[in-house]
């Protein structure tokens, strides 16, 4: 499986109260689970930098990763950037 990093930034209109974020996150998670079964969620991190969330996922189907990112955009009211991530050792071996 290939590894992908999905970087997300919330829209200012995404939620009014931080407590509302739990509902938003649950909705996005359930939607991705039901519509993108080929995407395996490895880890999610909240960050305090340029992006609000960093998600690490794996999949053999880039189309499902693209769909998951679109669900985050639509239901999570976010902008996303998706990166392919190559394990460092594999990258060095390729050189």
Structure description:
This protein is of the alpha+beta class and 95 residues long. The protein has one domain: Alpha-Beta Plaits. Helix content is 38%, strand content 33%. The chain is built from 3 helices and 4 strands, in the order βαββαβα. Strands 2-3-1-4 form a 4-stranded antiparallel sheet, with helices on one face. Strand 2 and strand 3 (53-59) form a beta hairpin. Helix 1 (21-35) packs antiparallel against helix 2. The chain is globular, with a radius of gyration of 14 Å. It starts with a strand and ends with a helix. The mean pLDDT is 95.
Keywords:
4 strands, single chain, 95 residues, Alpha-Beta Plaits, alpha+beta, four-stranded antiparallel sheet
Strand order, biggest sheet? Answer: 2-3-1-4
User: What is the 3D form?
Assistant: globular
* Protein structure class: alpha+beta
Strand content: 25-35%
Largest sheet: 4 strands, antiparallel
Low-confidence segments, ≥5 residues, pLDDT <50? none
Number of domains: 1
Number of strands: 4
CATH class: Alpha Beta
Radius of gyration based on Cα positions? 14 Å
Q: Architecture, according to CATH?
A: 2-Layer Sandwich
Helix content percent band: 25-40%
């Amino acid at each position: 499986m290939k590894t992908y990093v999905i970087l997300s930034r919330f829209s200012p209109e995404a939620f009014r109260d931080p407590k509302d974020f739990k509902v938003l996150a649950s909705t996005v998670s359930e939607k991705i689970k039901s519509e993108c079964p080929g995407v395996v969620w490895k880890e999610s991190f909240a960050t305090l930098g340029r992006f609000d969330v960093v998600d690490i996922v794996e999949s053999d189907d880039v189309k499902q990763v693209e769909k998951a990112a679109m669900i985050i955009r639509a239901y999570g009211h976010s902008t996303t950037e998706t990166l392919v991530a190559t394990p460092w050792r594999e990258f060095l071996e390729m050189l």
